[in-house]
Amino acid sequence: MNPYIEALRPKLSKADYDKLCAISIPKVHEFIAKSADLCNAEHVFICSDSVEDKDYIRQQAIATKEETPLNISGHTIHYDGYYDQGRDRKATKYLVPKRIFLSKALNQIDRQEGLAEVKGVLRDSMTGRTMIARFLSLGPTDSVFTILGLQCTDSWYVAHSEDLLYRSGYKIFSKSGSDTQFLRVLHSAGKLTENMVSAEHDKKCIYIDYMDNTIYSVNTQYAGNSIGFKKLAFRLAIRKANTEGWLAEHMMLMGVHGPNGRKTYFAGAFPSACGKTSTAMLPGETILGDDIAYIREIDSVARAVNVEAGIFGIIKDVNPIDDVSIFKVLHNTGEIIFSNVLVKDGKPYWLGMGSELPKEGINFSGKWYEGKKDEAGNEISVAHKNARYAVTLKALENCDPELENPIGVELKGIMYGGRDIKAYVPVQQSFDWEHGIISYGAALETETTFATIGKEGVPEINMMSIQDFISIPLGKNVRNNLDFGKKLQNPPVVFGVNYFLQDKQGNYLNDPKDKHVWIKWMELRVHGEVDAIKTPTGYIPKYEDLRKLFKQLRDKDYSKEDYIKQFSIRVTENMDKIKRVRQFYKKNVTYTPEAVFWELNQQYERLLNAKEKYGDYISPEEFKE
Ligand code: OXD
Ligand code: MN
Fold it and tell me: Is 224 in the pocket of ligand 1 (CB under 6 A)?
């Protein structure tokens, strides 16, 4: 007799008991039993991924009022608490055993103390509620990339969202052997207000116990903090990748369609709210993933899969002109969970949707009217900037057909981009793998955005856009990337992009749609079909090639004047950038590979030489041979 299943028996229906018994992994029984006991759940629901079970989850999300149906069939709205509108960096901590220290840039706490604290907060948090157990697969199923996950949660909204965002895993769990490894997440929304949002946001804990592959999250519902397989399990996957020699990355994946029906796969790392999803979603291209990728070397080739199967996307600025395909999906029947938008008469409204917004309705602050202020006297906006939609990728007509390919797609290019208003040109190609990984990836500078709680617009270094999720010493992460390239016969070509370059008056130099031109240029570069100009920071496009692409893609006459403004090398800004990056690595980072300083110093020297020859602000024309 299995003591854990027997302990759970009073909380299980006969059907749920049978579903649990069909899994023969003792650690599964133990995790569910210990979680239900700690949180004092009244019932435990085991989701077998059957149509009935998934329907039940959807119905419960509505019955408990965690979600409310909207006018279009399949659409619902979920709200998170007023103070729970983004990933919470401060509340997210690594539980680190004594005598171990991760990099200074990482938030950490003694493991024993942290476990005691979070378990104390979780204790009895599910009294009178049902705990749902969901089995999921990260990455395509039956693949070398697959990582299994089990989440216990008392939120039907979380369990429902997982249906849209991940691949079902119950079947795999039930046919797997007793020593099968899996990641675990225990989440409780904690005490709820009458609006069904987490009440005790000041007692929010999101703790990552990497010693036990377990995540604890409590007093939060915001998906980035509560859906354990989004950014939380990602941190555990990074550790696994670190020991096994592959890469887990905060990257979108897309198929870029080149001449004569050619398709070239790119990965792109951008910090949250810096253009990652909108790049992956460019019209005429195909989207394979918008957030997290696993990349492995298979037969000396870099191959990548999307860890997820859906999008938890920022809805702000999704409009019928710039985002045709997703705008259409958001108006079609089919399952979509909107979060933190304004609802009026059963219709969702968001910032930048391209039409007039109502003057009242329900939003993330409850009943809302124009001019409403919060406790601190700040005016509450009609919808939150970080309002989102969750939808399965398969609902998109531009979903890439290789989504479920168990060996992934061959990566030919990688791009890194942040909110760099001063220094880097809009697009450039690195001299080689090391130069790209270091100068564009490890040196990625950006500004904080609304996707995390806290002040917006604060400049920071966000290594490879993954810094929020790194769970190993930062220097080790750079080394892993450098080493990965050495295993490949033809490493992907590395590009740096910058959608946010401004002039001295603070005007953006590009339209958001210009990114399509940069993407097509990269595709041609990967195949050696256009030339480029060598500058101190990388290879940049030639004016004539961009002019052609602007005409083809945007029917726009791209002027030489614009080209010179956008692609001039700003020497001082670039040298200052290098100084900040060097300082960051010296001060905050352990195990930094020597190559980081070497590449940065080389770039500094190249800039200095160019400055002596051409001055501080160098037109691309000067570098033409
Ligand atoms: C996300 C994020 O939701 O990075 O993807 O915040
Ligand atoms: Mn993300």
Answer: yes
